[in-house]
Amino acid sequence: MNEPTSSSSTSNDRTKKKSESSKCFYAFRTGLPDNSEIQGNHDLLTAYGLGPVERAFNGTRRVKEKMSAFLPHVIGELHLDATKEASSLRALIEKPPIHKEISNLSSSAMQGFKLSAGPVDERYRHLFERKQEVDVLAYSEKSNMIRIKPPYDPYGRNDLLKPWSFRLSTDPVRSLTAHVLLSPSMTGMSETSGSFQYTTVPHFLTNCGDSLLDSPLAKKKRMGSRKFAENVPDVSTDDVEKSENWNNSYELLSWMRNDEIGSDAVMEGPFGPRKVVYCDYTASARSFSSIEKYIQSEVLPFYGNTHSSVTVTAEQTTLFMHEAKQEIRAMSGCGDQDSVIFTGSGSTCAVELLVHLLQSEAGNEDVVVIHSIQEHHSNLLPWRKLAKEMRSVEELESGHVDLDNLKAVLKEVRENHGDIKIIGAFCACSNLTGVLIDVQSVTKILKSCNAISIWDYASAAPYIPITFNGETPLDALFFSGHKLPGGVSSPGVLIVKKYLIQATKPKRIGGGTVFFVNDSDEWFLKEVEHREEGGTADAVGAVRLAMAVKMKRAVGEETIKQLEETISRRVFKSFNKTNNLVLLGPSTVEGRLPVLSFLIRSPNSNLFFHHNYISVLLNDLFGIQTRAGCMCAGPYAQKLLGVDEELSREFVNAIQESPDLDRTHLRRQAEYSQQEFLRPGFTRISFPYFFTMQQVDDIVSAVEFVAEHASDFLHLYQVNTETGEWHHQNQRVFHGRRWLGYIQFTPSGLKTKAKIVPDVTDMNTCLRLAQTLALEASQSINLSKIPDGRVAVNEKFQRLRWFVLPIEIAEQRAGRNSQLQGTVFIPRKYSDVPVKQIPEILGKLDEIPKPSENDAKEESTCQVICDDVVCLLKCDDQSTKAGATENVGVDESEAEDVKQMEDWNKRVIVKRIENLRKEEERKQEWQIPPLEMYKKVTDVIHQLKMIRNGDKVLVCLSGGKDSLSLLHILRHYQQRCNKARSTSFQLGAITVDPGSAEFNPRPLIEYCRKLNIDYFYEEQDIIGAAMKTPGLRSICAFCSRMKRGRLAAAAQFHGWNVLAMGQHLDDLAESFFIAAFQNGNLSTMKAQYTTKDNQLRVIRPLIMVREKALRNFAEEKKLPVVAENCPACFNQATERHRIKQLLAQQELIFPDLFNSLRSALKPLLLVVSAHTSEMRTQAVQNIVNSS
Question: Residues 1103, 1107, 1109, CA angle at the centre, nearest 5°?
């Protein structure tokens, strides 16, 4: 690193007068290694990911990525020299000083804390004179102190993590000892002369696995920026990904709390104004200011009706709709064979549409629907209309689906109904308990019996990953956009495999669904995504949903998971200590969202407090918004409460409206019953993941207070027996109501009645005030003024009253020995020890009867595979702009062009394990290709001598169907060669991840590990580099060029001499026409060629194979195809797509079209030169020779 230039003489004169005792320092965020691990500055900094430094780092990392949260993890001593490194305070942070020495104070590196530093160069003292703060570091000249602002703590311990201050003093050897100035409340400290020094690790760093020491950031692997040719350790990619997500998201959570619309809303209640605390995200999420501002400034000004593309408003709105769907595809991993449909108002419309799509016009197919006991009404009632039989699957004590019971139900259905269609409808998460279901385990069992796997992600989608095409692909799923934070008033989403769709007419006939209409007939669109989105599209809602999805992905699903688990653990620990608070559902904390349903039992009785009363009391005392009732999951709610079928019918008879009531002339707007308040229910509370732990603790304290003091306030509230609502006696009218009727439109604009927002107190003050109110309320009970609500209950329904009334509490307080009746139901008690699923279940699927062979073949297409048509996956196939030359080969010159991207900061190497046992080899998931396809590939290999003795063949594995199929074909060819003792070669694979959030090939790492092959995975921010490149005409071309250079460089570096690419005959034909139409030349991809330096050979063994053959193979063998979602081109009609359609149309007229094209393209395929000047000469000569 170059030494910084000198300051002016004036600056030097000024700074020389300052004391030389002032110092600066830099520290690590992870534990310190042994001295043996340190081999110079480069290795040290690389190990800790603290680049850039010197020549080893060409890219820069974000300041927050280097500095955030490092102090809680530094326990040790270091020495550094900062005299040559800081040309500014920001440079000090972004470019770490060279470390001279580093050592641990103990083997565990968990006791003591020292920082030592050399003096700051006097030329830079002026940078520290004004207590400047950059990110987390600030220096105070006056107090000779360096102050570190703590990182944002996503667990909400900001009250514990006070700013860290270091008082610096010079010792005889010019090193500095820093004492930690922290609050005495932090255990593990001892006071020493006005400062505090570590004696043990503070409890908040090690408590219950929640600590920052356990965070992904603290555990981040030593993956610094590296030169391409450096050795790279084989590390777990999960930790790297988690740490980055964490690092990018924990500050975003603070922004979300401030940006949430309504976070500062104030309500007027009977006990005074209260700040609204929204804890009902499971029902509906809230809006965010930034999202709404974007919609107002960018979407609405160009809003227009879709169904047109010739005006700027219509086209922009259509593009917004399309892009919104791409965000959904990226989040869920959808492919070309999956339909994504916006469905109006949430999951309810999605299920209704799905039922329609699964039925043909005849509608006479018998269906058996299997579901869990946890289903929402939306995923239960629509299937009752369709199904010949409904079967439910029980749950375990852990709240998960009983896989044994599921297997038994499937077996029984197959025995009783033979080859009948079976639909499995399950929720990914219970909206009552928050327990997450093992989607893959359930789906595997369903697929083993050729059952359709349908999933309700309504409660799960905002918080957990959605993998539609995972190891075992799902057939359909749906969720509600309005449940995602920021997704208010957005449509529902249905994702379904196209092969399942039988309906050819839209469910709702209208604009946008019709292809053509005349006086006597109509023709509907064939594309289901257009046909089933009739009418004017909710474009604004779709954009809002897309932004909510982007926000979820920005926070990071792994971060959300950890926050949800931490909140759940914290809330359960507190609630379980509250004696009269009855939690419904399993007691397990792991694998669930912080969604809790509960009842509060009245003291000295078996009765409960009414759920609506508990909800309104939380609202009035603390402003906490909860939900009361059965939450639209009636059957499961009744099982949680302990209400059986017989008792359920008794409740129905008590609360249903009389059939003799004349609803028409009485103009009834709602169901009417004098006994509605008997309806059983409970209170549900849900905690958003972006709440701080302080907020969570305050809410928990409020619930605990209500559980303890509910009886003190009960006499102040009155119940409406016809609605079940409870209201404070002084607030029967909604005083804080907002009225549309107050709105007036005037020449000066919209006017409404002004609202005065009163000052409100914080939650702690509310809690203290509530204590006073409870005391006052308990002393104000006047038995004579409390109506006897018992007489309001019909005599024949008296036994059904399960809640306590104010008169009964008053009689108890008055000392009367009134005998309270017992409760009519007892909530189900789950075991305290969670029951885990039995792994052997998945290995016993052979016991389930299989349907007929023909049916099995039909169902084998359940896994729909994506095509390799998106530029990120096959950029070397993609067309460029008109007039540009289409590069379709790998050239070592391109490796030179990618030197700017030498930042190989993410690389995973999977090494093949030699000498596996035969049992282990048989477990590998290698697939045998069809004989016809295999013969076409081997004929090409032999004719052109593509693979030779001693070759090391590296398959370019994008994750698409073509490259995955090629890998399995070459593996089969290798085994046949080994058996015949003919050609001997090595086989491996490589993936270059271009760094797009919409494309995640990481599952290939574990897949190749299971296949036991040599595999190289490289991640580069190619898309980010493309965005920063000025004047770039085509991202596709740039991506293609950079990936080819990476592949060539990696192959040569690792010692592999052959690159095998997966382009097929369709690709070659399309490239030929693109080159002819766009570039005016006759060329296509070459079957094989050698690079200019003769170091690398590139082969394309699939050039005689049709794309549909590869698709069928991938689908039949259920290869783990990576979903394709390219942000550069999306799914718009690119040139390649237009050519594909053109050829498909011609193939209908000339079925032998591609055989003719194969013969016509042969002279061009046989060009073997990598030099452009030689290609045309060879092509002409080949044409002459073949004629």
Answer: 105
